[in-house]
């Protein structure tokens, strides 16, 4: 509860001073003169905004100094282009990095304001979907922490990804209005506005040298306006910039049409422009959805590149120097159109010869691949791309001709290899392969885990790797320990500091010192107490949001990630049904009490993913109301998964579910967050799980199931899921009960097709891995029953996860790729 202060008698504000009295005075100053409120009538949101403005003031001087120093030194900058930045709430993060939390808490307390109450009011910035966007946010923080001059470029989505609610267990998508009351962290930069065009025609004119020049006569144009948010590093020693673009029409209203009575038509251009930055990942199942998605990607890429080139030239550099001063990292294929756009800017706008422009472009870009799934390696219908970006299509054809001629004449590529490396896929309707464009247009292509990188060479980019055998390299993902330990788990941070000192706060590899305490009974007891307190916090959240009581004494078994068949939430649910059957059939056994917690969003057009959410909720409804289970098993699906929810769930986890089909998860970062916070991982040898096993020790992680090689071989030979199902009585019973409507009495056929998919093809190896997964879960039970062994393993997980800091990842990027 926030109380109105009766008397405020404080010294004048002193910016930069961090004692509680000075902070309290600054908060009152902001409340009065920036928000225009008297303390007696100020709302909790007013106090939040005033507090943010005070913290922001302490960032700005360093922000300007960081930018000024880079400008004065004419140093190389990194530009990180990403369609997502899942930054979450910023107040606590910024205060932690600035060392302000304790003093600010006292300052607010002196004003009768509870810090935790107002901090909880800050909306999550709805700028991302999952791991890709959260990685980008971690990277922004780490680039500032390790003193790399950097800009992040993305879109300022008004609604971003949808807000997820449940209606009778079904996912319902609602707008996530995080900007409804403004964003006090950002600064509008009207001077950094650029025109971005679409459609139209390409005309040929004579250049000053007599050579033909190409002029893109755009059919429509919008304005991209920059909004800057400071990205502060650890200890506040460097502040970088996250620049997000908002779309505005050139003519907000067609006044003649409005006055003629066509009020809707008069706003047509305004609505069309604003739709570009309205929603993250508009459904692309329709032609209109595909066009909007491509428009979004080109919009932010074009604005970003215009901004980058303008800044580069403004500092007195030549275009030939671009690779020496600029490193542009493409975060997945979404910004791949940047390759064609930079070529257009160089060739058409600045008059650089094509071959020279290509060398500049290729040495400026680098590309991070995040997926081996063909559908996630974006491709666009050639007619759509050509209609929307006609000049870029010409450039793509010219680039393709250059590459294919070289591959055929100088490298001896055959017809099959030529088809595989071509930018145009002609196997069906002609499509432009954006993954190939990003690869060919970059000097470095990196995977995000050791396994993923090797699979890239063998699968999706095998022929491009043959053409350019030195370009692919690995940069295993990481997470920022500031957000994912110090901020979300302060009690564990204090306990570690008490045990090994504070050096790990600046160097996460120093966590290794905790190894010495893994078998110490007294430390285990303290570690267990911290975990229990975090579980109580999560139990309280579940009770308040969902009215479900869960026991913090039970094992908290958590799977939180985007809902997708390859991530195998379905395997988890089916094993839960099998466990439910076993508990009821064998009540005499000593079952470990478990709470199975799920959270995640399904893409609106992904039918099976949404059906899996419904199944989880149906299974929860049956299990949670069955008295014969005796509280030994509960299932909870928590709606609207976001960063703030993750910050509660991750520290509370006992068991971390990382059970994707081997060879399909590029890396994962949730696995790292859980292990860092003292959870035991159950998982396949997929993504970064392989390296986690190597670092934490195979005795401190529970691995099951087929390897990526085995999955590939079984698929190639022809997988027979019926044989696996027939060999497993528990799996048979679970599939039968789900398919027959035991969990869906209102619609007995609801899950028939979903289960039939496992019987018929089982592409994601749910049946193939089921018995191994069920056995691994019983192995987890055995470890849980030996509490000393359990805490020994989980403490060692925390101790040995320092290598997975995003600081290490960023230093590797810089040493091997950017050289900023």
UniProtKB/TrEMBL annotation:
Keywords: Allosteric enzyme, Carbohydrate metabolism, Cytoplasm, Glycosyltransferase, Pyridoxal phosphate, Transferase. Gene3D superfamilies: Glycogen Phosphorylase B (3.40.50.2000). PROSITE patterns: PHOSPHORYLASE (PS00102). GO terms for cellular component: cytoplasm. Its cofactor is pyridoxal 5'-phosphate. Its main location: cytoplasm. GO terms for molecular function: glycogen phosphorylase activity; pyridoxal phosphate binding. Coiled coil: none annotated. It is found in: Cytoplasm. CDD domains: GT35_Glycogen_Phosphorylase. The modification N6-(pyridoxal phosphate)lysine is found at residue 673. The keyword Nucleotidyltransferase does not apply. Belongs to the glycogen phosphorylase family. Allosteric enzyme that catalyzes the rate-limiting step in glycogen catabolism, the phosphorolytic cleavage of glycogen to produce glucose-1-phosphate, and plays a central role in maintaining cellular and organismal glucose homeostasis. Phosphorylase is an important allosteric enzyme in carbohydrate metabolism. Enzymes from different sources differ in their regulatory mechanisms and in their natural substrates. However, all known phosphorylases share catalytic and structural properties. This is Alpha-1,4 glucan phosphorylase.
């Amino acid at each position: 509860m926030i109380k109105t202060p009766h008397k405020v008698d404080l010294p004048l504000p002193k910016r930069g001073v961090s004692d509680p009295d000075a902070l309290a005075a600054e908060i009152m100053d902001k409340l009065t003169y920036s928000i225009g409120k008297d303390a007696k009538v100020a709302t909790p949101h007013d106090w939040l905004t005033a507090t943010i403005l005070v913290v922001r003031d302490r960032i700005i001087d360093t922000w300007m100094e960081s930018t000024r120093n880079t400008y004065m030194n004419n140093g190389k900058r990194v530009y990180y282009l990403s369609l997502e930045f899942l930054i979450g709430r910023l107040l606590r993060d910024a205060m932690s990095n600035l060392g302000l939390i304790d003093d600010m808490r006292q300052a607010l307390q002196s004003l009768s304001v509870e810090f935790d109450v107002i901090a909880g009011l800050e909306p999550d910035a709805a700028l991302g979907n999952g791991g890709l966007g959260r990685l980008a946010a971690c990277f922004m923080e780490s680039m500032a922490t390790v003193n790399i001059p950097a800009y992040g470029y993305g879109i300022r989505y008004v609604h971003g990804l949808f807000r997820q609610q449940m209606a009778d267990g079904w996912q319902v998508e609602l707008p996530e209005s995080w900007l409804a009351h403004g964003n006090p962290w950002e600064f509008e930069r009207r001077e950094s506005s650029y025109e971005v065009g679409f459609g139209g025609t390409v005309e040929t004119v004579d250049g000053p040298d007599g050579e033909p020049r190409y002029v893109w006569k755009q059919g429509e144009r919008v304005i991209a306006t920059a909004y800057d948010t400071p990205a502060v590093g650890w200890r506040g020693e460097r502040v970088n910039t996250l620049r997000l673009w908002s779309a505005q029409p050139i003519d907000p209203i067609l006044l003649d049409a409005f006055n003629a009575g066509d009020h809707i038509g008069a706003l047509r251009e305004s609505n069309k422009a604003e739709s570009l930055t309205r929603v993250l990942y508009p459904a692309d199942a329709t032609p209109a959805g595909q066009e909007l998605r491509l428009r979004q990607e080109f919009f932010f890429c074009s604005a970003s590149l215009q901004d980058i080139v303008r800044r580069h030239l403004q500092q007195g550099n030549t275009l030939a120097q671009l690779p020496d001063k600029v490193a542009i990292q493409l975060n997945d294929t979404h910004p791949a159109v940047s390759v064609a756009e930079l070529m257009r800017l160089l060739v058409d706008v600045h008059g650089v010869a094509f071959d020279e422009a290509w060398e500049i472009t290729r040495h400026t870009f680098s590309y991070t691949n995040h997926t081996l799934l063909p559908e996630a390696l974006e491709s666009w219908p050639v007619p759509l791309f050509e209609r929307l970006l006609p000049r870029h299509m010409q450039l793509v054809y010219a680039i393709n001709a250059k590459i294919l001629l070289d591959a055929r004449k100088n490298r001896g590529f055959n017809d099959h290899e030529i088809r595989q490396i071509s930018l145009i896929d002609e196997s069906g309707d002609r499509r432009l392969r954006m993954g190939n464009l990003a690869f060919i247009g970059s000097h470095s292509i990196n995977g995000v885990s050791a396994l993923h990188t090797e699979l890239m060479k063998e699968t999706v980019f095998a022929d491009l790797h043959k053409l350019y055998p030195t370009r692919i390299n690995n940069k295993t993902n990481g997470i920022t320990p500031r957000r994912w330990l110090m901020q979300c788990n302060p009690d564990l941070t204090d306990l570690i500091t008490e045990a090994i000192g504070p050096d790990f706060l600046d160097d996460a590899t120093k966590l290794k010192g905790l190894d010495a305490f893994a078998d110490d009974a007294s430390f285990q007891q303290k570690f267990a107490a911290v975990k229990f307190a975090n579980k109580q916090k999560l139990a309280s959240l579940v009770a308040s949001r969902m009215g479900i009581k869960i026991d913090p004494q039970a094992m908290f078994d958590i799977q939180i990630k985007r809902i997708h068949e390859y991530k195998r939430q379905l395997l988890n649910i089916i094993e839960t049904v099998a466990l439910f059957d076993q508990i009821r059939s064998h009540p005499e056994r000593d079952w470990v009490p478990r709470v199975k917690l799920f959270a995640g969003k399904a893409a609106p057009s992904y039918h099976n993913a949404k059906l899996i959410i419904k199944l989880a909720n149906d299974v929860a409804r049956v299990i949670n109301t069955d008295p014969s289970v005796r509280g030994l098993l509960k299932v909870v699906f928590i709606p609207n998964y976001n960063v703030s929810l993750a910050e509660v769930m991750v520290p509370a986890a006992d068991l971390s579910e990382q059970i994707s089909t081997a060879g399909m998860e590029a890396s994962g970062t949730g696995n790292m967050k859980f292990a860092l916070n003292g959870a035991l991982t159950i998982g396949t040898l997929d993504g970064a799980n392989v390296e986690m096993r190597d670092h934490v020790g195979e005795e401190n992680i529970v691995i099951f199931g087929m390897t990526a090689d085995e999955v590939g071989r079984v698929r190639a030979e022809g997988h027979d899921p019926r044989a696996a199902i027939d060999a497993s009585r528990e799996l048979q019973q679970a599939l039968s009960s789900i398919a027959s409507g035991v969990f869906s009495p209102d619609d007995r056929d609801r899950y028939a097709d979903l289960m039939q998919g496992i019987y018929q093809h089982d592409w994601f190896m749910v049946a193939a891995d089921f018995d191994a997964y069920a056995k691994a879960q019983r192995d987890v039970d055995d470890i849980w029953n030996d509490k000393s062994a359990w805490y020994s393993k989980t403490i060692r997980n925390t101790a040995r996860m320092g290598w997975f800091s995003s600081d290490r990842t960023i230093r590797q990027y810089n040493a091997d790729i950017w050289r900023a």
